[in-house]
Amino acid sequence: MSTEEKDHEILCANVRAIMQTRQGKEFIWEILSYAEIYSSMPGKFTAGKRDVGLKVLQLLEDADSKLYPNLLLEMNNYA
Predict the structure, then answer these.
(1) How far apart are CA 19 and CA 53, in angstroms?
(2) What is the pTM of this model?
(3) Residue 21 sits in which domain range?
(4) How many domains does the chain fold into?
């Protein structure tokens, strides 16, 4: 395993740990909300935010494919 792969595994483990707490889930939710990843009208000022949001989504997927769907359910039930 390369150093890059090891670093990514550590990052994924950190994401899983963050997502085990209510505060972590709310923090990730706030980032994704700010990123406007589902905006139908991305503009030049939102493109960077969207890229960050997509990176966070990819990290969630890499860490555990169930994290994002579970986050959606939890945050929608919490609201």
Answers:
(1) 16
(2) 0.86
(3) 3-78
(4) 1
